Amino acid sequence: MNYEALIEERQSLRSFEQKEVPAAALQEVxxxxxxxxxxxxxxxxxxxxxxxxxxxxxxxxxxxxxAFHAPLYxxxxxxxxxxxxxxxxxxxxxxxxxxxxxxxxxxWLTLTDEAATKRxxxxxxxxxxxxxxxxxxxxxxxxxxxxxxxxxANVKVDMRAGHIAPKISEQALFFEEKFGQEASFVEDQFDPxxxxxxxxxxxAPSFHNRQAYRxxxxxxxxxxxxxxxxxxxxxxxxxxxxxxxxxxxxxYSNYNPAAARWEIGGEASAEMQLPAEYxxxxxxxxx
Length: 287
Known about the structure:
28% of the residues lie in helices and 26% in strands. The chain is an alpha+beta fold.
């Protein structure tokens, strides 16, 4: 899979065609699920597929109870332990990219009522409902402007077809050595592979497009920082962290096959000068 191209190609969406996802495509997604990379490979995961739900999820899942009437829903189920939601987000982002490769659209849905959602989808497993995806063929939309946000005074505008969510720029996403210290992305002065991976991380889906996280390199280590955000739940934030970690790692490890895996948690040094509203969510040894 060409992850760099798929990450750029994948789009948010607002509505689906009422067209079934072919059985062969679904089988390919189920096969791929068993091959996905994991942050916590020891956790037992399962993928539940449910078609023909209609309005069964309305009011109990999705943005403001809107589940988009998708022809297919995928639920990632997981054992529960520290980092389980980040792990589920990491896996679910890979599923989104596989669906993109197959020409199928998908979007994340907020889980408002876990028990009711499991009942609506016919899930009897004791595993926790971790991540819910609405899946199908997107209705054609007119070309729209995409906003890549650096600062309120620096917003890049591109025209692309479909519904494009605003994304944070690398300059605003990544710091060196201490919080707020921007890196110089000058050619021949910045690691080109790290640049590619951070760009991929900046394009990760995030609930309500908040992207409250930041990346900080201190020495040999890259830290993912989770920022408090009153507009998203802790669960949704953790899934978003998993998604951005996936985009980063899929690209970084493609150029560095021996790349280390993300580790959940970690401690910030005083030199990193983290604001009170940020914590270390994960750490990766770069070299």
